[in-house]
């Protein structure tokens, strides 16, 4: 067996080596990678799809794929989840050097936010980003991210370059299956439709009763 050979060859270091190898492949137990709706990750002001930076744990240091900002040194990445998330931390690998964003502003449940909305919205939390080639872990205030269906990350500027670059984006936390919205049941019920049509903004969702 290969494992027995490793123990014979590595002696006292074999246990540490095997443990580190396993951890690198599997990642943290509370990684949310498998619960990200990767096909619908959106990146604004880039020439690539946002999902290229949503990588498995063992690819977190891989620099073959990245997102680089296009027109200037700003970028927005919107990440939807397949359920309800209680977020613990955001993981980022950026750079190199002055292509590192100066900071990241994180918004919970702002699915359609774009650059025009930034000035009107207050981030749920923000972090300064240090230069470095490793993956940075940014622990959030969990109480503010306890029922998250999507996260929007805004990178407002670089640390000196004309563009910014993101290699890896990951999340740690707890995922639960999202329950169906009970409002759907009300819409489908054969109730008094005349009452429903009085709700502002929903007239187009219902049939007008025959008179």
UniProtKB/TrEMBL annotation:
Name of one Pfam family that matches: PITH
SUPFAM superfamilies attached here? Galactose-binding domain-like (SSF49785)
Q: Which InterPro entries match?
A: Galactose-bd-like_sf, PITH1-like, PITH_dom, PITH_dom_sf
Report what the protein is called.
Answer: PITH domain-containing protein
Q: Which Gene3D superfamilies match?
A: PITH domain
This protein's GO CC annotations: cytoplasm; nucleus
- Membrane-spanning residues: none
Domain of life, per UniProt, equals Eukaryota
- Where do the segments described as Disordered lie? 1-29
Q: What family does this chain come from, according to its entry?
A: Belongs to the PITHD1 family.
Positions of the PITH domain: 21-191
What are the Basic and acidic residues biased-composition ranges? 1-24
């Amino acid at each position: 067996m290969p494992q027995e050979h490793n123990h014979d060859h590595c002696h006292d270091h074999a246990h540490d080596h095997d443990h580190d190898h396993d951890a690198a492949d599997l990642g943290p137990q509370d990684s949310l990678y498998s619960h990200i709706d990767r096909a619908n990750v959106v990146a604004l002001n880039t020439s690539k799809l946002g999902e290229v930076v949503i990588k498995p744990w063992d690819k977190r240091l891989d620099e073959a794929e990245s997102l680089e900002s296009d027109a200037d040194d700003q970028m927005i990445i919107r990440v939807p989840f397949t359920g309800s998330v209680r977020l613990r931390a955001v993981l980022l690998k950026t750079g190199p050097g002055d292509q590192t964003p100066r900071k990241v502003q994180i918004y919970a449940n702002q699915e359609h936010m774009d650059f025009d909305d930034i000035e009107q919205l207050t981030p749920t939390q923000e972090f300064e980003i240090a230069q470095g080639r490793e993956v940075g872990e940014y622990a959030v205030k969990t109480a503010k991210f306890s029922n998250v269906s999507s996260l929007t990350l805004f990178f407002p500027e670089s640390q000196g370059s004309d563009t910014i670059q993101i290699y890896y984006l990951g999340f740690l936390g707890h995922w639960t299956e999202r329950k169906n919205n009970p409002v759907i049941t009300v819409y489908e019920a054969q109730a008094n439709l005349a009452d429903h049509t009085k709700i502002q903004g929903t007239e187009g969702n219902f049939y007008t009763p025959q008179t």
